[in-house]
Amino acid sequence: MKKNNFLHKHQKTLAPLLSLVLIILVTASITPGFLSIKIVDGHLFGSLLDILHRATPTALVALGMAVVIGTRGIDLSVGAVIAISGAVTAVLTVNTDFPVWLVVLCALGTGVVCGLWNGILVSVFNIQPIVATLILMVAGRGIAQMITEGQIVTFHSDVLDAIGNGYFLAFPIRVWIAIGMIVLTVLVMRKTALGLFIEAVGANVRASRLVGIEARLLVLSAYVFSGFCAAMSGIILAADIRGADANNAGLWLELDAILAVVLAGASLAGGRIYLLLTIVGVLIIQTLTTAILTSGLPAQYNLVVKATIILAVLLIQSPKTRQWLSGFFSKNKNAGKSSAGEASTDKRSAKP
After folding, report:
1. Of 14, 247, 342, 350, which residue is least crowded by CB atoms under 10 Å?
2. Phi, psi (5° rounding) for residue 36?
3. How far apart are CA 227 and CA 130, in angstroms?
4. Domain ranges for the chain
5. What is the tens place of the pLDDT at every residue in 159-211?
6. Angle subtended by helix axes 215-241 and 193-203, to nearest 10
7. Model pTM greater than 0.90?
């Protein structure tokens, strides 16, 4: 009884975790050495570490996306913001004598300005989030190309190289950056009233205003945070390839971020924020990508296979499936009780 109550209470949490474990086990069964981890020069190497390494940009973007979706919004511009911040990082590194900390600050500031733009359109002018962020999604890559003058700008910086590909305490530095950002976001959202207020705005904006919550300011802050996270991702991606590619940097990354939030069990209707489960969703997506690439499948099948598996995961996690499984197990449980009751009755009637 207690076991069933635990499963029922935590089924939304367990579903993404079990999906991730299942995908890892299946991948390990078809890919030799997938779970092996080696230590080379004090650094950890292996497929699992590569998943963490490659998942970092998506994880940062998904954090911001989770908060925005919690307000009943959406941010389609994060891919373009990644391209803009990466372009700013590369151009300032090449064409100025700015110290790295100032270059990073300018790139992060660019992301904040982009988020502020989206937030003003949504919260002040009441433009639908999908339309407001679509504007920057379309124009953003053009802005990035203007910054780079249509070229792929390459650079060399020891500090940025360390951010993109360096190691600290055996783990990639970019993974530590993501962990720090995740911990900070979780603390702010769960240990202060801010997270509760944002969820209240997403659940019912009119009611939240009636109780004195500054709904517009919170929505604005959510988009600023999303822009900041996208800028961090853009800096890491630019540092990874030691350059800025305005055409391809962060391309379609917004879709993976949205999908990660959905895999976490959040509704696009807003009202709930699942930060840690969103990171699990990111790991599911990146594990699938790595598994497909290492399985030897032809490249043209990669996206179809990935979409099919993700659809299966979403169907398993859907409320209808959980309701059906809950009903199925309860029927079996009731049937077991009925059988036990009948057996007990038969024993009593058999007594002289």
Report:
1. 350
2. -75, 140
3. 15
4. 42-324
5. 999 999 999 998 999 999 999 999 999 999 999 999 999 999 999 988 998 88
6. 110
7. no
